[in-house]
Each structure stands twice: as C-alpha cells, then as structure tokens.
Design a protein that fits this description.
The termini are close together. The protein is 27% helix and 23% strand. Helix 3 crosses helix 4. The protein has one domain: 3-Layer(aba) Sandwich (Rossmann fold). It is built from 6 helices and 11 strands.
C-alpha cells in the first residue's frame, strides 16, 4: 500500500497548493493528502491516517509565534494556516514520523520547535545572493556527516534554487544546521534521521539532481506504512 503523505496545508483563504508537491509525492510512490484547518482534537486521527508530513512553501510565518515585532517586509499567511502547520509539525515530530519542510515549511518546523527566524535576510550585511528570485541558482555547503549530506552521498555542496526572504535564525530544540549558503544564510536544518527542513524547493528541481530528498522521504514513509 502506498504511504500516505499529509501535505500542509490547503487552507482556503490562502493560495492553493501548487501541483508540483502532489506530483513529487506521487512520482516517488506516495499518496498525497492535502490538509485543511486542523485542531488538536483531530490530531489522533491524522497521526493514524498519515505516515509522514510534508510542510509546503508559502507566505511568511507571523512573527508573534517567535516573539518578534513584525518586519515591514513581512507578508504573513492566515492565522489558520500558521496555527494548523505549527500544530502538525510539532505533533509529527513528537510521534517520530518523517517530516520534510520546504521553504516556508522549514521555517514552520523551526518555529514549531521553539526557534526563531530572520525576517528579512537582505538586512544582513553578508547577504549578496538574490535569495528571493525564482530564477536564482546558488551553492549551499553541506555540514559533513549530517543527514542531508548522507542523503546526497556526502558531496560537499549542492546547487539549489531560491525564492525566500526569511530564513532560520536560531534553530529550534533538537534541530541542527546542515547547510549554509555561501553568504551565510541557514539553508537546511535537521533532527535525527527523520526530520529535515530545506530552504529551497526540491520539488521544482527533480530534473536538476534533487530526487534523493524525495527518495529518502518517501522511503521512510513506506517503512512507517509497513
């Protein structure tokens, strides 16, 4: 039976999830389940129904969830989306199920575990890469012996895309940094062998060498399903 992947989230007052997420999950053998607004009462059913959680891209996490005043460049998502995704991220991590956070999803994962964000990376003097340009390709340096490094066969660097202006600043409880851009932005965080957040969009780069992330993620989800 195909592993069931919860895609967080499809909240109706935000933009619909791009088809690239569904296509990536299906391509590597999973069955995608788009999550709507979720409450704590529904968590037991969802944790029983889904084998893994994919936290998707989107607008900014509201800064109140990491106790900062909002930046003038911030464009938050809805309260319902923030609260749903923060709830799901914490619950799936606690349950020991695989979690993959992509772009905003990596930030949600970090905030859910008590970390905070840099709300506008272009305020940092070191930043030179056009991180918010969908046509950008830039290098990230992988931390040796990290989960992310092992997923890609222990190569020292990857070339990634970039469509963000926020990023992880202080990693949340249990998370460690596994990749940095050449201008110092945190590009990936991880926990153990089942939790990974990446700042880029691997689902858009499957033909550019990003298949290993989804093979790893869907492989773990299949183990849970069995």
């Amino acid at each position: 039976m195909k592993p069931r992947i919860a895609l967080a989230s499809y909240i109706y007052n935000d933009s619909p999830l791009p088809a690239t997420y569904f296509a990536a999950v299906e391509r590597f053998g999973g069955y995608p389940l788009a999550m709507g607004v979720t409450t704590e009462q529904e968590l037991p059913f969802l944790l029983e129904s889904a084998d893994a959680l994919l936290l998707t891209g989107g607008g900014d996490v509201d800064s109140r969830y990491f106790r900062q005043p909002p930046h003038e460049k911030s464009t938050p998502c809805s309260k319902e989306r923030d609260e749903t995704e923060l709830l799901l991220a914490a619950a799936f991590v606690r349950a020991g199920k695989p979690v993959l956070g992509i772009c905003r999803g990596a930030q949600v994962l970090n905030v859910a575990l008590g970390g905070d964000l840099c709300q506008h990376v272009f305020d940092l003097p070191s930043v030179q890469i056009q991180h918010q340009d969908k046509d950008t390709r830039h290098r990230v340096r992988l931390v040796p012996e990290s989960l992310l490094s092992s997923i890609f066969g222990h190569v020292p660097e990857l070339t990634v895309n970039s469509t963000h202006h926020q990023a992880v600043q202080r990693p949340g409880d249990g998370l460690t940094i596994s990749a940095l851009s050449t201008d110092g932005v945190i590009e990936a965080v991880e926990m153990g062998d089942r939790v990974l957040g990446v700042q880029w969009h691997p689902e858009r780069m499957l033909e550019e060498g990003m298949e290993p992330i989804f093979r790893w993620f869907l492989g773990l989800a299949q183990e849970v399903r069995r």
